[in-house]
Amino acid sequence: STNERLKTHKQSFHDGIRYPCDECDYLATQPGNLKSHKEFRHGNIRHSCDECNFVANHRSTLTKHKQRKHEGVRFPCDQCDHVALDSTNLRRHVQSKHEGVRFPCDQCDHVSKDTTNLRRHKRKKH
């Protein structure tokens, strides 16, 4: 119901209530997110590729694998010759190379082109 969603929103975003995973350090903001995390990261559900020995914990991961590895699905950039393997990587490419999106470190003056490099910087320098 609307009242339940409002209550969950208030608890998550205003009261800071978190739902910890009992198998790792993950903290969810909502019970449903914890359930999804546990199924995806710690669940025993396995989705096997029928074309190779790849096994995924989540059906969407298997679908993406099949598209990339067996169906040749690619995502070309409409501004240059770059071709990404998925829509997420294409979006990141466009943001970094064509839109100038940057990710500043909150502990020094370093600025990264993507979140992966920012995490690597923080791990090595801080």
Walk me through this protein's architecture:
It is built from five helices and eight strands, in the order H-E-E-H-E-E-H-E-E-H-E-E-H. It has helices at 2-14, 31-42, 59-69, 87-98, 115-125; strands spanning 19-20, 27-28, 47-48, 55-56, 75-76, 83-84, 103-104, 111-112. The termini are far apart. 0% of the residues are buried.
Taking the sheet with the most strands, its summary is:
2 strands, antiparallel
Radius of gyration, in angstroms, nearest whole number: 19 Å
**Arrangement of strands in the largest sheet:** 1-2
Number of strands: 8
pLDDT under 50 segments (min length 5)?
none
3D shape: extended
- Provide the succession of SSEs: HEEHEEHEEHEEH
Helical content class: 40-55%
Cα distance, first to last residue? 44 Å
> Structural class of the secondary structure composition?
alpha+beta
Query: What do the pLDDT scores average to?
Result: 89
